[in-house]
Amino acid sequence: MQPTRRRRVIIDTDAKNEADDQFAIVHALLSSSLDVRGLIAAHFGTRRTTRSMEESREEIDRLLDLMDLRGKVTVANGAATAIPDERTPQDSPGARLILAESKLASPQDPLYVAFLGPLTDMAAAILLDPDIVQRPVVVIWIGGVGYGVQTYPGVEFNLSNDIDAANVVFSSGITLWQVPSNVYAQVSVGYAELAERIGGTSALADYLIRQLVEWNATYHPEPIESRSLGDSPAVSLMLYPNGGTFRVRPAPRFGREGHHVPGTGHPIRVTESVDVRFLIEDMFAKIRRFGRGRP
């Protein structure tokens, strides 16, 4: 039975940064209870490329082609770089999409905006139209380190690509759910599991596996046969908002080394665990079902 209501969502994704965004994007698009109002291509800094946002856009388009959804899902380019400071937005079609959809939200039908990379486009939306923080918008961010635990060496990657943007969003008072690194790192899958569960079911599934293995072979410094699908908790929380454990904390700010410093104290919802069984099983089942529907 089809659900009578769908949750309105936007996904802002640095899709070509690693190999996990792809699984999250596909999972969201295959979920009947999610009304994906748009995909926004995000930058991921300049450490590997000078055109990271454009590469994210190309990867989004590649996935939509594999799903026969090109032209059926709104796609917008986000900012090509981080914001220059906490007062100056990087305007973009992606930020404007967030603003336009936020104005259609209501308490009965809020807008969920999931960020799988830096918070650049959300910060831009807030700086362009501060009234957005008063609208029924829920921001879900995969990023930052855990509270009282250290599982990430140095500055967490998504945070590092725009610390100023994170400070804008965390200081704004907008409804914010954070999934820190100690939680998102727990969503790991192995090569054998991927091959056995979804391998051979469709060209889409085979691409998802192949690009993950290729990313590890190119960038991982040690022998490995697994990968954390660290962006997928954002999708599982939109599908099942109570699917985990959470703690309300006062919003911090972030120092240049990625550490927490005192902030405004606005309450934010910090995820302390997610229902990994539900997340993985639901995603794999939908990818297999997609394959069964192919010629």
UniProtKB/TrEMBL annotation:
Ranges of residues in domain Inosine/uridine-preferring nucleoside hydrolase: 9-242
A cellular component annotation (GO) from this entry: cytosol
GO molecular function annotations of the record: purine nucleosidase activity
Chain ranges passing through the membrane: none
Superkingdom of the source species: Bacteria
Alphabetically ordered keywords of this record: Glycosidase, Hydrolase
One of the GO biological process terms: purine nucleoside catabolic process
SUPFAM superfamilies: Nucleoside hydrolase
Stated name of the protein: Inosine/uridine-preferring nucleoside hydrolase domain-containing protein
Organism, scientific name: Phytohabitans rumicis
Species classification: Bacteria, Bacillati, Actinomycetota, Actinomycetes, Micromonosporales
